[in-house]
Predict the 3D structure of the following.
Amino acid sequence: MIRASTRHGRLDAAMTADPVLAAQIESELRYGQTRWAEVWLACIMTAYGILLLSAGETFSAPRYAVIRSFVGEETAGTIAVACGCARLAALWYNGARQRSPLVRLLGCSAGFLFYAALTAGFLLAGPPLSTGLIYGVLAVAELHSSSRSARDVSVLDSLGIRARRDERDRLAA
């Protein structure tokens, strides 16, 4: 169990009496601690893409000069919406299929690259704006989520490396 007591007598009694309920509550707490940040980061990415697709001349601002030299506004918006929605779908899939953290890891890595590129673009365009620094914080959050996803990939042996090694060792013995 995550904690010995919730400090709520009736809930503690119910969890003690019903191990299935205790496991479900534990699972929900763990999900909330690890994946909700990923959900919000994907929503921010999607909203940013929608803004780019609907606003019109966002990239005409001087702070977008570096980003504009690499990608157009419509392309950037399409990429952001596609990646954000794919990320949300991947998180749903990972929730439905418990042994699929590799999907989360790929989404977190793509999110990190997205936010890191925005950060670099804003910081290289001139004096550091709060916008660039905020995207930097989001990139660090994605990096943290990536490390948690990578740990889940390792623990669950999602790539099958441990299983293949164990099988090879068993055959060699």
Notes: DSSP finds eight helices and no strands in the chain. The CA atoms of residues 106 and 146 lie 8 Å apart.
